[in-house]
Amino acid sequence: MMSSHNLMTKRVLDLSPLLLLIALMIVFAVVDPRVVSSQSLINIVAQATPIAVLALGALIVLLTGGIDLAAGVGVAFCAVLIASLVDAGFGLPASLAIGLAVMVFVGFINGVVIALLKIPPFVTTLAAMVVLQGTTLAVASKGVLMLKDPVLRFVGIERTFGMPHVVFATLMIILGAGVLMRMTRFGLRTYALGSDASAAELAGIPVTRHTIMIYAVSGLFVFLTAVVMISRVPVVTPNIGGTTLLLDAIAATVLGGTSIFGGRGTVWGTVTGALIVSLLTTALRIFGTDPSSLELYKGAIIMAALLADTGMTLAKARLMEPAR
Amino acid sequence: MSHSRITSLLRRNEPVLVVVLALAVLVFGWLDPRFWSAGNFVSIAQQSAVIALVAFAMTAVIIARGIDISVGSTLAFAGVAAGIVFTSTGSATLTLLAAIVSGASIGLLNGLLIGFAGISPFIATLATMAFARGLSLSLSGASSLSIPDPAVLYAGRASVGLLPVSVIIAALLLCIWWFVLRRTVYGRWIYAIGGNAEAARVSMVPVNLVRISVYLIAGATAGLGAILTIGRLGSAQPLAGAGLEFTAITAAIIGGTKLSGGQGSIWGTAIGALLLGVINTGLSFLQVPQIIIYYITGALIVIAVLSSQPESVAQLLRSIRRRTASATSPTVPQTTGAHSISLQGIGKIFPGVKALDGVSFTVSAGEVVALAGENGAGKSTLVKCISGVYRPDEGQLVIDGAPVTFASPNDAKGISVIHQHFSLSPDLTVAENMFVGREPRTVLGLLDRRKMRIEAQAILQELSLDIDVDAQLRTLSVGRQQMVEIARAVLADAWFMVMDEPTSALSNRERDQLYVLIAKLRARGAGILYISHKMEEIFNQCDRVVVLRDGKFIGERATDETTEAEIVSMMVGRDVGDIFPHLPAELGETAIEVKDISNGKLLTSASLSVRCGEIVALAGLMGSGRSEVLRLIAGLETPQNGTIDVFGKRESGGDIKAANRAGIVYIPEDRHLEGFVGTLSIRENLSLAWIREHSRFGLLPMRKIGEMARELIGSLGVRPAQPEKMTIELSGGNQQKVVIGKWLATKPRIILLDEPTRGVDVGAKSDLHHLIAKLKQQGAAILMVSSELPEVLGVADRIIVMCEGRSVGELKRGATEEEVMALAFGETTRVRRTKVPPATVPAHPFVLGASAV
């Protein structure tokens, strides 16, 4: 077993996302209290919702050392698809059902190409991204679509106790993700696969089938993200989501303790990471940074997070070496 | 026959590509004759120029096993930086410089993140992509910067006659890249790193520096591309270069560059870039809607990768065929009576070698049967045939009386192999690990964690194992992880277990615990096939011994009725002196003197000396610190304590190049990991360490390399004697010869060998030892680590024994195995025996530690 000193260090490392969030909030409270005013905090939580949902999908894929580059563009595609269907008179439930089916199918195809044809995930999802980008532009022939559905409005814009309902809906999604990862066969096998792929195969996990499922589930989360976004902002254009949202999601997972090397990562850590990203974005906006610089800072944040992740991975590995 | 010809043709992409290119031009022209105009071709060439430029650098990055998806954004940023410099200084020179330097600095950033911090390339360049795009947007205020200076615009829009300058630049870079990659040391290093970075590092290639430089060059190239783009547009656009990286990657992959690294060609990339330009232009000529162009781009990427790895398609088809073929085979009957597994005439053939021939024996429940044989005897192949990884080409497997065929390891129910690489996930807990793949579920379909913990607890208790079911596997020692692996097999109702050198990584105490566990398993009715080199184990733990040699079944004996000498002679088949020759040599000066050396971890204190003209063997159990001593002397690690003197001169250690200059070479333990680069040819591997010191101006002396390679291949006896052959395709023994040859080329005086004949067949073993003996006669000082006692006793002039991190004694030639063992175990009394009657007690164990099967 580890010495108690090592054990405590490990606990601290495990809790680092939460500690980082608290530390940042304290820093901003001192530097510019507007950032942590109650109104601002509610906004931060609300803006974190699409990031959190997409990040959860990214978590599942990143756990096995893969990547879904098409996720960001997929959100735009799904949103445009659903909005166009509603606009064409399909009614909300049917449009949602079709959107879900299509995104899961896209994920399924990605998974098949990755698992069966052994084409690396980033190339496959890269190609998928290109294809989805083109399709989005084609489907969004009208340019801008307005969604006036009262159910969506209820979920996205109405508030109770000052908190938009979308937050509660996202909480349910988060809970579902937590159950999926901790309490199902799928979750355990995903961790096993990411921890040591050849061992997982020896252990009898159907790697091909599982990989396909992982990317299909990623498609599911892309769908959920799209729904969250169109409920919050009923103006749907082909530009929502996109690479910016994908970067936010990846930053959220890395800040939340997911290792790019696979095998490590938690749902609660990812959600905390999403909150951190939303907090930083809001703070930058309040400080008056112009919107075109946002990507710049996001990129810098991801780089810092990646360096920290590398450092933490090394530290943890050294801590946990068995006694010789 | 034609199948192999097609695959070899596909391996050379360029001819196929040229044909496809010609076809595309013909087809588009036929569909719309305007396509065949000179003006159109010029336009295509101009468009392809920037792509080609970036794609060349991308090819080098991919060959080095990396990827760079930030080049598009880097191009934009470089353009914006150039625009800003122009606006503030008005100088054309500074503007052009700014573009290249800013591109290079983003490239340097990438290089540091990837080469230094070790961050995965696509995530790192994803972050840089955002960063660079953000920089270009914010610095330019999201608007374009006009640059009307004709000097700056020249490269992008001027033409010399009919040829645009940009095309000339691209063609120039093509030649430069071709030359660098094929004819310079730097280029060779890029290929080496991409093929096997660890082996490259050990071969004195400056891996980190080369990696950083490759990304820096990619960034600088993006800067050059920015100049050309500014020339074409007349201004710097903050959104320029969008999608450029993907087109560049596609061009490289179409051109035959493999994403797995180590292989690629610049000419292929050039043709690939042209092909993409033709397709793009042709499609817009046909007024194909934009969306279709997106689709085709996406499809091209996938097709390009697929065509670069035809093996994955072939493997897919093969596994589909295998699955349908065995769909009707009978499954293993799930009886709970006494089980038995019977091998009848099992044979397995690989291209060029018969790995198994006529193996027949039976194991019944409650028996422990040993499988003995030297390295390369076929033990691991046999295990793979039993467990369903391979299908035997001859003979059959009979389980519980019925013949069975396994399509995959999952079909082999009831059979469990305890590998040296466990089937356990380090990040999961013990309980989770025991149930992965067979998880129990509650009524709601969720994991029944309570049941998992309870059952895991129960089985661990039954096997008397004191392991915490909630502990993360990573925190357990190797020995305890092995127990978990065995417990997992028991839980899965495996009645037949194959244990592959189970005690090789265990401490004394854990080994005894394993023996108790085996007795328990035997009482439970398990049948065990026990692979081991250690005679004492075989005679104490096993009822019978099966011996393989060179893939053939030699014989089977009951341990009660045979002696160690008989088993040894069956395993080796000839006089040990033949394989392990000893030649006399003149002793020279002291080459190495090591005092009290330690690496701060496993190795606490070792002292020894080696003179020219002698072979000193380092003997001891696994984990006694022998390899660590060699690695410290070789400069692969830095000593924390102690001193190393080479020919009387004090060496500070930790520097591979300094060690090599002093005349030291190190042949590593794991040749696949650190020995050779599989994707390079024999000739390229042989020259890999030599080129650093012997290339003028960084140019490869091709003729000298060719001569040297032919000489080495001849004197080492490398087979097949084809310098162009890819090293990964050679047999283990020949690969080892190549590794040794690489280091012999640097004319060493001190040779450090770490398990030189591991995983090598008997014939090659003899070749290698004759070679080593000759080197000794020529005056080399040789320090050899070996776990095979006959090797140590046969070849060494002196034997230094290590135990638990310390050198504990020195023996002269002629020492007995008993003396070596006593020192290695650190005990003065013999290890106690458990079951065999005194008459057949072997006087000494056969081998220390373990070697791979």
Overview of the molecule:
Chain A has 14 helices and four strands. With 324 residues, chain A is mostly helical. In chain A, α5 (92-116) runs antiparallel to α6. In chain B, 50% of the residues lie in helices and 15% in strands. Chain B starts with a helix and ends in a 28-residue tail after the last helix. Classes of the chains: A mainly alpha (324), B alpha/beta (853). Chains A and B meet through α6, α8, α9, α10 and α12 of A and α6, α12, α14 and α15 of B.
Q: Summary?
A:
Chain A has 324 residues and is an all-alpha fold. Chain A contains 14 helices and four strands.
The residue fraction in helices of chain B comes out at 40-55%
> Whole-number radius of gyration of chain B?
32 Å
Largest sheet of chain A: 2 strands, antiparallel
Assembly context of the chains? heterodimer
Distance between the termini of chain A: 12 Å
Quick one: CATH class of the largest domain in chain B? Answer: Mainly Alpha
Sum up the overall morphology of chain B in one term.
globular
Class from secondary-structure proportions of chain B: alpha/beta
Number of helices of chain A: 14
Which residues of chain A form runs of ≥5 with pLDDT under 50? none
Strand content of chain A: under 5%
CATH architecture of chain A: Orthogonal Bundle
Mean pLDDT of chain B, rounded to whole units? 84
Q: Using CB atoms under 8 Å apart, which protein chain pair has the greatest interface?
A: A-B, 69 and 79 residues
**Mean pLDDT figure of chain A:** 86
> Which H/E pattern describes the elements of chain A?
HHHHHHEHEEHHHHEHHH
Side by side, the strands of the main sheet of chain A go 1-4
The proportion of residues in beta strands of chain B is 15-25%
